[in-house]
Design a protein that fits this description.
By secondary structure, the chain is mostly helical. Helices cover about 75% and strands about 0% of the residues.
Amino acid sequence: MDEPDVDRLYGLALEEFVAARDALARERRAAGDRAGAQAMKALAKPTRAAWAVNQLVRARPDEIAALVQAGEALEGAQERLLAGDDDAAALRAAAEAARALVDALAGEAEVRGEAAREKVRATLHAATVDPEVRAEVAAGRVVKERSAAGFGGAGAVAAPGPATTTARKGAGGKRARPSQRDRERREREERRARERERQTLRRREALRRAREAEADAEADVDGARRALAQVEATLAARRRDLDGAERALRDARARREKAERQANTSAN
């Protein structure tokens, strides 16, 4: 949902998110936009760490833009290294630049405790190596802390050393023809890359289902709360009615007793 309302929603204080989201959903439903209301209602409330990342996007737009660029540069360095068009030094330089930005931004996050700050740092690092996370962070709509996986996660900096580059070249610095061992290594890397892609797709599908289940559960909780509030309001009204009836009974009883005393006095 690429809409200003959604951007404003994810920029609010975390405690205001649910009430503001539900109000926007009601507005759309009242306007006859049932699909828009459902889509709005399905927006997940961010975790505390995800909210802190979203606030960084709004408070530090230049640094976040630099982080996105650093992630793209790191991705390009990885691709060039795998293709044999660059050496490990370029990859290490790109990874170090990305890490410096991650550390600086994590230090500015509005969180308490090192554990929460580490979740922010992990999410920002994931944005440098995962295009999907990078898009979430750039949009400022992160709903859950993320972590890096696959090539570029734990292995971005631990790239092959200078010997790898030398092995690709023959005497006189000219690129040597790939050996059988090099071809087999490349095939293994490609198989691992395909398996990582399959794992990524499975994780994305699991995440989608989890988000849908969370949204459904949250909608059920909201509905139950509204029903409880209605019952409590009705109960309070009935209690007021009962109090009023009891007061009226006491007044009527007092008038009857007074009338009885007056009648007995007249008879005597």
